[in-house]
Structures are given as C-alpha cells and as structure tokens.
Amino acid sequence: MAKEPTIHELRLSKHTLNALESAGIYYIKDLLLYSPTRLAEITGLSKETCEKVLDKAIEFLDRYRKKFLTLEELEKVEEKKIFMSTGAHSLNRLLHGGWCVGEVTELAGPYASGKSQACFTALATVFLPMMSQKEIQEILYGGEETRSSERKDVHWGLNDGDISAVIIDSERTFSIQRFRKILGRFGLNEKEIMKKVIISRPENAWDQKRIIESLVGVVRENNVKLVVVDSLTKLPRADFSGQGELYTRQRLILDMVEKLRRIAINYRVVVIVTNQVVATPGVLYGRGYKPIGGHVLAHTVDTRLLLTRATDPYRKVTILDSSWLPPGECKIRITDEGIADA
Ligand SMILES: Nc1ncnc2c1ncn2[C@@H]1O[C@H](COP(=O)(O)OP(=O)(O)O)[C@@H](O)[C@H]1O
Ligand SMILES: [Mg+2]
Q: Which terminus of the chain, N or C, has less C-beta within 10 A?
C-alpha cells in the first residue's frame, strides 16, 4: 500500500502545521473529517485559513482521484465488503456476512434487549482471524456438509496481525468478568486481548463528544478495527432534556455520528453504536418503538437494527433501515458467552 500522505505535503506554513498537529491531525484524510468552522474551533486558526487548508487538501486528492466515474470504472475501484462475525449465524445471514467494515451500524432497542451483549461479543470476535468472502458464504449458506456441527461455531474477525478495538462505555455496563467468558467461547487469548481492548468512559455528553473527536488519533496509532459506542444517545438525552434543547441534542448526536462515519470509511473500521428507544403507542414502523435521535440518525447510519425482547433468552433483530440490506428479521439468543444462534 502506498504511504498515507501527511499534511506536510500541502505546503502549509509552519504555524498552520503546528496548529493542526496539536489538534491531532497528521494525515490529509484526517483533515477531511472537519468542516472549516469546526477545524477553526479545534485548531485556533482562522476560518479563512481553514478554508484554504481544506481547499489544498481537496486539490491534493484530485491529483490522485477522478471526481466523476462511469459505473464501469467504479466497479473496478470499489472496495469489496468485508465482514466480521456477530457471534450468531442467523444475524450474520441477515447482515449478509456480519458487521460490515467501513459502515456504522446502529443497534436500537429497549432496556435488556441485548444491545450491550451484541457489542461485547463483537469486541471478542473482531480478534479472530479474517476469512475470505467465499469461506464465509460457505459457512452461512453452504450445504449440509459445511454446516456440520464442527463448523457451526466457526467465526471470523478482522485480525490481520496487531489490531485493537475501542469501546466508549457511556453506560458503564462493560464488565471484564462477562467479557472473559465471551473470549473463552472463541478460544481467544485473554492476556493478549486485555491489552488490545481500549475503553473510555465519558462523564457527560460534552465529554463524549470530545472523546469521539480525539478518537481518530487512537484509531490510527493502535490499528483499531472496531469502535463500539454504548450508548451513543444516553448522555445527550440526559444532559439536554427539555424541548427547548432538542435542537442542541440532535446536533450533538449528529456531529458524533458523522465523525464516526468518517472514521469508519477512512480507516476501514467497523462502528457499532447503541441507541435507546422510546415507546410509541403503535406508530412508527408499527412496532411500538422509536429510536432516539429520530431522523438525524436514521439518515447518517448505514444500517439500523431494532432489538426486541422475546421469551428469555431469545431476542428478535429487525432491520429497520439500511442503505443496502433488504428488510428482514432473525432470532438470536443471549448466553453468558455472548450472543449466539437461537
Ligand atoms: N451472564 C448472563 N447469561 C445469560 N444472559 C445474561 C447474562 N447477563 C445478562 N444476560 C441477559 O442479557 C440481558 C441484558 O442484555 P444487555 O445487552 O445488557 O441489554 P441492553 O444493553 O439492551 O440493555 C438481560 O435480560 C439478561 O437476561
Ligand atoms: Mg446496555
């Protein structure tokens, strides 16, 4: 792979370079995470300077990319979808392979619907070796032979050497004890992985926003392949509760998810965010639940799933909305070793 171009290639003044680096921006692609206004805020540079910097970044990129492609050209350069197992093959099938690299998936659902369990399971499976799309398809859709009992609990991750995963545990429900059990199920080396999972616990909504803004540096330095935010919306909801603060709250949520989406795309990371739901007597989706964050989130995440409780220990997963997956649903089971087939 060609070396990632840094901001030093943009012929900026020493002062500008320093300001950008102090804000944690090293690569040209990091610059593209920000609007000129936001860049000015985090670097202390003037908005005019930031507009010029962004123009230079885009001009630089234009030397290497075609702005307009025919579909034929697009097909050649488009990156193939890469997946990691969710821990449940029923869910992997629903998602055409599992959690998708480069995308943000939202898990919405009421209390105890299994959102956190799904996240913790992903924090383990990501450390499994990668598998080819062909092997994955065989395990998920193959005949009797490939579905034999030995292969039933075969899973795949994104481990191509030295990788890490991040959890932003806003709800403070992550438990090392629980996680150990999940690692055991997949035969993962506990001692190794305790060094590779990075946790951050925001104090409030604003802190969470700042943590997400500084995430790009952590992702770059630690070869992070999975980012979990559990939950994305709880703190904003608690801190901005009145009707008058609705706009501020939605803006904050949108800001965070847009940043996460850029990280997903630029760094080829899986991003999973959880979201609470409010009960709606029979309206939206006819399912009686409406995810917090409403339309802002619906239009910024790539796939939105709804988890609902069935008779314990089962849960139902429904695709509420996706930019590419057809509607569908499946059943999973919550075990003390993470989520699994029903
Ligand atoms: N050790 C365990 N073994 C089996 N099920 C468990 C265990 N711990 C929690 N659960 C189940 O998981 C559910 C909570 O799931 P969780 O992912 O924390 O929900 P959410 O994050 O959606 O609120 C509980 O209903 C409980 O039944
Ligand atoms: Mg939870």
A: N
Exposure string of 108-134, with b = 16+ CB inside 10 Å and e = fewer, is: bbbeebbbbbbbbbbbbbbbbeebeee
- In this prediction, residue 80 carries a pLDDT of 86
Q: Which atom of ligand 1 is nearest to the CA of 114?
A: 17
| DSSP 8-state symbol, 304 | E
DSSP string, 148-175: SHHHHT-----BSSS-EEEEE-TT----
Task: For the chain, give the mean pLDDT.
Answer: 90
pLDDT tens digits, one per residue of 239-258 = 888 788 888 888 899 889 98
Under CATH, what is the fold of the domain 7-62? DNA polymerase; domain 1 (1.10.150)
Closest by Cα among 279, 273, 268 to 301: 273
Query: Which ligand is nearest the CA of 119, by number?
Result: 1
Residue nearest to atom 19 of ligand 1 (CA): 112
Atom of ligand 1 nearest to the CA of 120: 17
CATH superfamily of the 83-341 domain: P-loop containing nucleotide triphosphate hydrolases (3.40.50.300)
Q: Which two tokens stand for residue 61?
A: 């990129």
DSSP 121: H
In tens, the pLDDT along 61-114 reads: 888 888 899 999 888 877 789 999 999 999 999 999 999 999 999 999 999 999
Whole-prediction pTM value?
Answer: 0.88
**Calpha distance 211→195 (Å, rounded):** 20
Residue 259 near residue 33, CB atoms below 8 Å = yes
- Domain ranges, ordered by start, for the chain: 7-62, 83-341
